[in-house]
Amino acid sequence: MPAVGQPDAVILYSGDRAVFDTHRSTLDVLGGASSHVGTDPGLAVLYNTALLGFMYATVNGFYHAAALVGTAGVSATEFESMATGWFLNSVVVPILDDQAPKIDAGEFAGTIDTTEMNLTALEHVTRTSEDHEVNAALPRHLAELTRQAIADGLAGESYASMIKYYRGPRKG
Predict the structure, then answer these.
(1) What is the pLDDT of residues 24-76, one digit of tens each?
(2) Any alpha helices (H) in the chain, and if so which ranges?
(3) Is the CB of residue 99 less than 8 Å from the CB of residue 29?
(4) Hey, what long-range contacts does 7-14 have (CB within 8 A, 24 or more apart)?
(5) Cβ-contact 114, 146 below 8 angstroms
(6) What contacts 7, CB < 8 A, 6 or more positions away?
(7) What is the pLDDT of residues 7-35, one digit of tens each?
C-alpha cells in the first residue's frame, strides 16, 4: 500500500532543523505530514526501523491470535474487528499511554500490572496455543523472557520493567 504522496503519509526527517523548515512546503508534497524528529541525521532512519519492529511484532501477534481463534472457526476478518475496533484502541493504546512516561522516568512500581501477573497470562496463552496445536513460539519466548525477569528480582515490578531486557548497554 503505497503511502508516499497520500494525505495520510507521514514522512520522517532528521538533521538540521533550519533546512527542514526552509523546505517544509516541498517536503509536505510527499505526504500529508512531515515530521522533524531531531537533529541527529540518522534519527529518522532509527525511528523508521523502530516502527518497523513495532509493526512486525504487532502484525505477528495478530497472526498468532487469528490462528488461535481460527481453531474455533472464527474468521480472521471477524476477529480483526474485535482486535482493532476495541482491543487495540481501548486496551493496548491506554497501556502504552500509561507506561511510556514510566519507562522514561525509570519508575516501575507494580500495582495490578506486575511482571509476575503477566507471566501467568503468558503461560496461559502458551498452554492454550499448544492445546489448540497453534505455534506457541511467540508466547513461549515472551514467557521465558518474563521468567528471567522474575528470577532477576522483577516479580513485583510493573510489566513495563521488561524494557530492561530489550535495552542494550547504553552508549555515552
Answers:
(1) 888 888 877 778 999 999 999 999 999 999 999 999 999 999 999 999 999 99
(2) 17-27, 43-70, 76-82, 93-105, 115-131, 137-149
(3) no
(4) 7/31, 7/32, 8/32, 9/33, 10/34, 10/35, 11/35, 12/37, 12/44, 12/47, 12/48, 13/37, 13/44, 14/38, 14/39, 14/40, 14/41, 14/42, 14/43, 14/44, 14/45, 14/47
(5) no
(6) 31, 32
(7) 778 888 999 999 999 988 888 888 777 78
Query: How far is the C-alpha of 21 from the C-alpha of 73, rounded, in Å?
Result: 53
- Packing angle of the helix pair 115-131, 137-149 (nearest 10 deg): 150
Q: Give the amino acid at 147.
A: R
What are φ and ψ of residue 135, in 5° steps?
A: -50, 120
pTM of the model: 0.86
